[in-house]
Design goal:
By secondary structure, this protein is α/β, with parallel strands linked by helices. It contains 16 helices and 8 strands. The strands form 2 sheets. It has a 4-stranded parallel β-sheet, with helices on both faces. Helix 5 crosses helix 6 and helix 6 packs parallel to helix 7. About 50% of the residues are buried.
Length: about 425
């Protein structure tokens, strides 16, 4: 029997996600009404991915961090952000991660490679990645992904376009990357046989701006004490953002979250009734422990305010005056609102860390450092010194944020519990 690509994900959507969505919509699961919109967006994204693969009426682009999907939507290309896929597939089924990591390592992948790239390679070998018409990647965020996308290119057999991502945040760097995106447009026009319509790009960017404007308001509301939303809502909504930017459904969902937070702040309602600590969760989530944030909030009366990845969406809107201004805005957004942010210097990362710590009124930091992120470990050594000088309590530990065999849930929770016991006595 000819099994279609992404057979596992097709089953997961039908057998796990859709029943869960019904429970969330009925508010029969914790934070159901806040999480339902995010899961609905994830389901819609995957169903459209399956439809495009099956019907072939649109081109499908597998793209990487350092880009957001507006340019693809404007050209009627279905965007698929590869690096979100492993976290979605692993949700609720950590053994799936083990399977694809093992497949990758059995085929010679170095074990020290980032789990994302090992997962994507294993999934590609097992036909659990979309049948892309082309792949778009960049020279950032890390060496691991540069190795990964060379392997993906050889295995997929489809055209690959690479953008050169600058290593700083200056206006000159953004202008340079806007030029790289302009070159990308030429590649996309060649692949699709369609020209970019500036008016359609403006329409998509304006929709994207509406969502990000609501998100900026939501971030402002997170400064309130008590924090209006639990940490799990921040992480889950960020996953939806990455796949759905530029769509009206995302805008409606973020506006719903913003309005709910306004009501919560107005009425003094918080995620943690007796908020005693405000946690800046600074890096990746623990994908195989979906209850982690709830456990921290309930056990230690500690509100998880924001995580590092979702905090990237604190940038100015895209100027839609003309194509040049839109490309400049898309360049800045691609570089600054995804994992591409970690391409910059340790000094710049520390500057953003201190900004977030102050802006959100945090009083402690949890920093899960993935074993595959070598550059982050280098930065963490410097960041610890900064935290020591400024008397910022920080709980840093190693883990693989998707492969629970490296450091299991029990060990992670024990480390965090020890930290809060210490913080509570200071």
């Amino acid at each position: 029997m000819n099994v279609p690509n992404m057979s596992y994900m097709r089953d997961k959507v039908e057998q796990q996600f859709k029943p869960m969505l019904q429970l969330l919509q009925a508010d029969l699961l914790p934070n159901g009404r806040l999480l339902a919109g995010a899961l609905d967006l994830v389901i819609a994204h995957y169903e459209e991915t399956f439809r495009v693969m099956d019907e072939g009426d649109r081109k499908l682009c597998w793209y990487e961090f350092c880009l957001t999907p507006e340019i693809f939507r404007a050209m009627d290309i279905h965007p698929f952000l590869g690096e979100v896929h492993p976290a979605v597939m692993t949700f609720g089924t950590p053994d799936v991660c083990w399977q694809y990591v093992d497949v990758a390592e059995e085929h010679g992948t170095p074990p020290e490679l980032c789990v994302l790239d090992k997962f994507l390679l294993g999934a590609l070998l097992e036909k659990q990645m979309p049948s892309a018409d082309f792949i778009v990647t960049a020279s950032a965020p890390c060496d691991s992904s540069r190795i990964g996308y060379q392997m993906f290119e050889q295995l997929s057999g489809c055209p690959v376009y690479r953008l050169d991502a600058p290593a700083d945040d200056s206006p000159e760097a953004h202008a340079y990357y806007a030029g790289e995106i302009r070159k990308l447009i030429g590649f996309l026009e060649g692949q699709t046989g369609k020209r970019l319509d500036p008016d359609r790009l403006r329409e998509v960017c304006e929709e994207s701006n509406r969502a990000t404007a609501a998100l900026l308001e939501l971030f402002e509301l997170k400064r309130a004490r008590p924090c209006p939303h639990p940490g799990i809502v921040t992480f889950t909504s960020n996953m939806a953002h990455l796949n759905a930017l530029g769509t009206p459904n995302l805008t409606r969902y973020v506006e719903f979250l913003r309005d709910d937070a306004i009501d919560a702040v107005r009425n003094g309602r918080g995620a943690v009734a007796d908020e005693q600590h405000r946690v800046l969760w600074y890096y990746v989530p623990v994908v195989f422990d979906f209850e982690m944030n709830d456990w921290i909030e309930q056990t230690f009366n500690a509100a998880v305010i924001v995580d590092m990845l979702s905090s990237y969406f604190r940038e100015d809107p895209i100027d839609t005056k003309n194509v040049d201004t839109m490309l400049l805005g898309l360049a800045r957004r691609g570089l600054e609102t995804t994992m591409g942010r970690v391409r910059v210097s340790a000094a710049k990362l520390t500057e953003r860390f201190l900004r977030d710590y102050a802006d959100f009124g945090a009083d402690c930091v949890v920093f899960p450092a993935p074993v595959g992120c070598k550059h982050v470990w280098a930065w963490l050594s410097l960041l610890r010194e900064v935290c020591r000088e400024r008397r910022i309590p920080i709980c840093a530990f190693d883990l693989d944020w998707m492969d629970s065999r490296v450091r299991p849930v029990e060990s992670i929770r024990a480390r965090i519990a020890e930290f809060f016991e210490t913080v509570a006595t200071v």
